[in-house]
Amino acid sequence: MNTLVLGGTRSGKSKLAESLAQESEHDVTYIATAQAKDGEMQRRIDLHRARRPASWQLVEEPLQLAACLERLAQPNRCLLIDCMTLWLTNLLLVDPDLNKDEALRTELDALYNVIPTLPGHLIMVSNETNMGITPLGELSRKYCDEAGVLHQRLAALSDRVILTVAGLPHYLKGQPHGL
Question: For the chain, what is the radius of gyration of the CA atoms?
Answer without folding.
Answer: 16
